[in-house]
Amino acid sequence: MQAIVAVDSNWAIGNKGQLLVSIPADQKDNFRKRTLDRTIIYGRKTLETFPQKIVLPKRRNIILSTRPDFEVRNAEIAHSRDEALRLVDGVDPDDVFIIGGASVYREFLPDCNRCIVTFIDRAYEADAYFPNLDEMDDWEMTDESDEQVYFDLTYTYRIYERKA
Question: pLDDT digits over 53-78, tens only?
């Protein structure tokens, strides 16, 4: 499995239920291109940040929710990590992406072998964080793109891989 995430310089990912910043090229050329026609796993609160709270098209959407009666059109609902893992049993792990939020990332990070990180060179006010992979002994950055620019923001795409 892989995680895909955009973080600021403090590994923050959100504030008050919203993304810290929206970078169109990151969403279109990185996130969309990588996850299209693949399986994405995310939490109910992440779904609520999507436009009109509609699942992402052309992907298999698995949404985690502890609410027993929670239903979403065009999505599968898992009520636990184990249930979500059962739903993707037999699927190529490279075709399964964890896309948030913070608690879902933390819960599934042990199952991931790769993290695709958009690293934004700025610190934002935040209340949700991704684990800092630079401080974890079992992860290493294996690739980093050239610096990208969006208005006054600079960012890079980083690939982290779990050490063997």
Answer: 999 999 999 999 999 999 999 999 99
* Cβ-contact 3, 13 below 8 angstroms: no
The helix (run of H) or strand (run of E) holding residue 115 is strand 114-120
Whole-Å CA distances, 93 to 48, 112, 142: 26, 8, 19
Output DSSP code: residue 145.
P
Q: What are phi and psi of 128, to 5 degrees?
A: -135, 135
Spatial distance between the Cα atoms of 66 and 69, rounded to a whole number of angstroms: 9
Per the structure, the complete domain to which residue 8 belongs is given by 2-137
CATH number for the domain including 14?
3.40.430.10
